[in-house]
Amino acid sequence: MTVRNLNQMFKPTSIALIGASRKPQSIGAVVARNLFNAGFSGPILPVNAQDRAVEGVLTYKTVADLPITPDLAVICTPADTVPATIDQLGARGTRAAIIISSGFSKDLLQRTLDAAKPHVLRVLGPNSLGAMVPGRGLNASFGHVTPKKGDIALVAQSSMVVTSIVDWATARGIGFSHLISMGDKGDVDFGDLLDYLAADPTARAILLYIENITDARKFMSAARSAARQKPVIVIKAGRSEEATEAAVSHTGALAVEDAVYDAAFRRAGILRVNTLEELFDAVGTLATGVPISGDRLVILTNGGGMGVMATDALVQSGGTLAALSPDTIQSIDTALGTTAKRGNPLRIGGDAPPKRYADALNALLHDKSNDAILVLNCPSAVNDSTAAAQAVVDTLAANKALRHPVLTSWLGDESAVEARRLFAANRIPTYDTPSHAVRAFMHLVEYRRNQELLMETPPSVPDSFEPDRIVVQKTIARAIAEKRDWLTEYEAKRVLAAYGIPVVETRRAETPEEAARAADSIGGSVALKILSPDIAHKSDVGGVVLHLTSGDEVLDEARAMLDRVREAVPDARIEGFTVQEMAVRPDAYELIVGMTENPLFGPVILFGEGGIGVEVVEDYALALPPLNMRLASELMTRTRIWKRLKGYRSRQAVDLPAVALTLNQISQLIVDFPEIVELDINPLLADQDGVMALDASIRVAVPERPGARRLAIRPYPKALEDPIRIKDGRQFLVRPILPEDEPLVHGMFARMTPEDIRLRFFAPMKRLSHQAAARLTQIDYDREMGLIAVGPDDVTNETVMYGVVRIAADPDNQRAEYAVMVRSDMKGQGLGYILMNKILDYARSRGIKEVYGEVLRENTNMLAMCRSLGFVRKENLDEPGVVEVRIDLEKAKGA
Asked: Measured between alpha carbons, how far is 636 from 580 in angstroms, rounded to an integer?
């Protein structure tokens, strides 16, 4: 998670081209031509031992001959020369290199990275097309077309994808802030570039072309941070649905790689699309910045057929056709009379003049029963398409305060050109066809949903149930000690019960005779199942018999089952049987809840329709843990069975909170126990009375990645919650900050004096922007920490924030910058001192060696507190009014 020295890569003041060439069609010649002709204002230094000049500029024979140290080196020489070149450049002070050369073995690549590491020299590539920053006149690539200047950043693994996108975009007048080809991702990867581009104001949106990710947690942290600041849109290559051959459980078979990537992108708050056309359409749609609150679309059209086509596209995409409110219908009747066909699509006639468009659109803009409006226009001899477009533009301008999402599609070629220009000039999204417009609307819907998932920060310790971790710990430890991969069904159900998941009553029996006695003891109808650690799917080998009503029946079936199973799986260890009560729940649905360990993203949770045909039905959705109730509910909505679970006709709705709680309980179980690498509950019965697990299987192993490190997303660290007491006796809770704390931040800011605000932010501020408050509250606990002190307000008794402290660590987790602020009326109560001690303790626990900060020289109270905590001062010669304070945590701990 580092942007270190990336400024030297993308904002260099000088460039060396190692391997510059005059040989026609050579990479060195193409890169030289691009570098020298892109408008770069700094010196470009070609290095070539044979040619006296390249592109009319004198060359240098070696790196040692360069008259200045270049910020950036672009390397086109053979692969085996690169490690030595990197070492020479690093020793001279160069801090960034783009390696276009290819043909690197694993060993050669490692030697290159080893040469760069001592100098903190950043490497893009090898096997990279290069990097282009049109706004700075930088074209350090062997691309065939110089891209236009714009505000879209593109990051891609494939060189050919970059060249294809540049071709496609240039023909359509689309420009870029950055085009970056990552090549083999030796050093600089997606996480680094997302962090860098998120902070670059010239990039309005970030586009990614991904073939694979190497560090899931780093990617997720960077993607979540970037997606909070600007649209991030991704194309992921490879959508194969082929399951891993080694998968044993249903979940393992269904959780294919592409579906897991989907879940990761969704949780990161980014939008996935499938084609280049979608990619750039999505940029245009999201860049309008108009918020959307739901999936209800109303269609306004002068052509009935096009309205029907748009409706079909909407329904097939999972959107909802909005119902017009009675007030809106009345407004339309008053304005349009019988001209309009009341309903959705709202048809205003093929002869609709501009005023009819304006009146209808005005009514729909004030209708709260829709979330967005799609305005369509079909050309005809009796209407003016351009005038109709102008009416839309004028109506939206008059209702600008409503910020209601409106999309347009003016059909036709010549007749629609001017209308589309009008819409583009006024930043109103417009599309060639109704289906493309509907697709863009669904992009908005999906993006909003993903942004909501991004805001969710589940706790590391559950609030809604009390698990019995000791039972689980002993059960898992026993299986691992006995070198068993799978828990028995009986053990698996004990584990589920320990986490509060209802399980059907189950007895264990070693012999057919014991099974018969267990059946008589349970009474009623029972199920008999084989008990073996080597058999994952019992029904496949005749190891399940249902609806047995007496001990004698169970005895006969148990003996026959032994014969069947031994014949089908002769090497399987047979430990006996389980006898369980038949759950009589005729209206219950069979669901599946599962988990599998993905090699890249760690644990993945699955929910869907269960039963023995689960792989055939393929109705399921995936999510990354940790979950909370809202995330669990969202996961459920992405399945087809969800609509049935809500009830229909005479069928009552399922107890959906109970299902969501089960998902939460499974999430907590796998967060708590990294030894669990695969889990299936199939079926999980669900009806109006709750849920019950009928069958369960759990695979265990010694964890490769300890604790929470195996999770792609670090959960809310509830263990850091701590009550404190200040000097006047009042008690507050200190806890990590959450995204939903933004109102508390604004409330505290409102209680600060102008002078305290100036001392904290180094400048006067009348209000804290939403962006600034979001930056304070929406943090990734894996890379920074914010602790707040909250308690009841003295007057209203509502929870308010009295103080906040935060640290942000550098990429190597060595140094962290701190910031602290307490409410102005809390001065002298010791709250700032308490918060600083807590954040310093946290920094020590994370292995951070030094904490530092900048303080205005006139902020004597802060400087005095830092002195008492053990910070030392360092004068800032560049800014005389600012003092740097720092504390060596290792020395301070020893003292």
From this structure: 28
